Amino acid sequence: MITVHHLENSRSQRILWLLEELGLDYEIVEYKRDPETASGPESLKKVHPLGKSPVITDGDLTVAESGAIIEYLLDQYDVEKRLRPTDGKALLDYRYWLHFAEGSLMPLLVMKLVMMKIPESPMPFFVKPIAKAISGKVQEKFILPRITPQMQFIEKTLGESTWFVGEELTAADIQMSFPLQASSTRMSMTEFPNIARFIKQIEALPAYQKALAKGGAFTTL
Ligand SMILES: N[C@@H](CCC(=O)N[C@@H](CS)C(=O)NCC(=O)O)C(=O)O
């Protein structure tokens, strides 16, 4: 039996969705975030030393890191090869987006979240304007010039096809879902109508809805 160690409001939402797309039976062990730090609980470190979510167990195996979990589940259970192209440009594009999600887009989104949180953190009142100015400058000079071209590139890609790799859903769409949902709460989407359309499209899928019903309400931080 597959067990998903599911931290609330986290990337493990993607794994629940993938399991639903594959029509597999699985169980969920739920974990709560620390209300102050948003960290996962110590108990997650008993499953994997880094204590991050998602992590799954399947029999004796423990698999961590979303991309590795996705590839493992497809290798083992996507017998009809529905969610991963088998060759050619489609396979290359699939791999590109699968890795882009955590390798390129997420680091900038995490940086943005940290910078957005800094001015809200408790600190002496006279330090607040300085903290706000530093956070604003880092976002303006470092994060925005890097994240904007990425978002524009995604926007263009989603303007050319329904999904990241053509007209069929692949696991690359599942992997890209979390950063795009997170970006929609961390920046304005007015310039990115195709990304907004993609988010609506995934959230309406029956398998996504089933995953939500089993894993509980989901929001990005
Ligand atoms: N690149 C990793 C990131 C894992 C990760 O940072 N997960 C977050 C949840 S979205 C987490 O566990 N946060 C809790 C913590 O850092 O304590 C993956 O995709 O699996």
What's the layout of helices and strands?
Layout: E1 2-7, H1 12-22, E2 26-31, E3 55-58, E4 61-64, H2 66-77, H3 88-117, H4 128-160, H5 171-186, H6 193-203, H7 206-215
Parallel strand pairs: 1-2
Antiparallel strand pairs: 1-3, 3-4
Bound molecules: glutathione.
Catalytic activity: RX + glutathione = an S-substituted glutathione + a halide anion + H(+)
GO molecular function: glutathione transferase activity; peroxidase activity
Pfam families: GST_C_3 (PF14497), GST_N (PF02798)
Structure description:
The protein is of the alpha+beta class. It folds into two domains: 89 residues, Glutaredoxin, CATH 3.40.30; 118 residues, Glutathione S-transferase Yfyf (Class Pi), Chain A, domain 2 (Up-down Bundle), CATH 1.20.1050.10. 56% of the residues lie in helices and 9% in strands. The protein is built from seven helices and four strands; from the N terminus they run E-H-E-E-E-H-H-H-H-H-H. Strands 2-1-3-4 form a four-stranded mixed beta sheet, with helices on one face. A hairpin with a 2-residue loop joins strand 3 and strand 4. The longest helix has 33 residues. The two termini are 30 Å apart. The site of glutathione (GSH) has 11 residues, from loops.
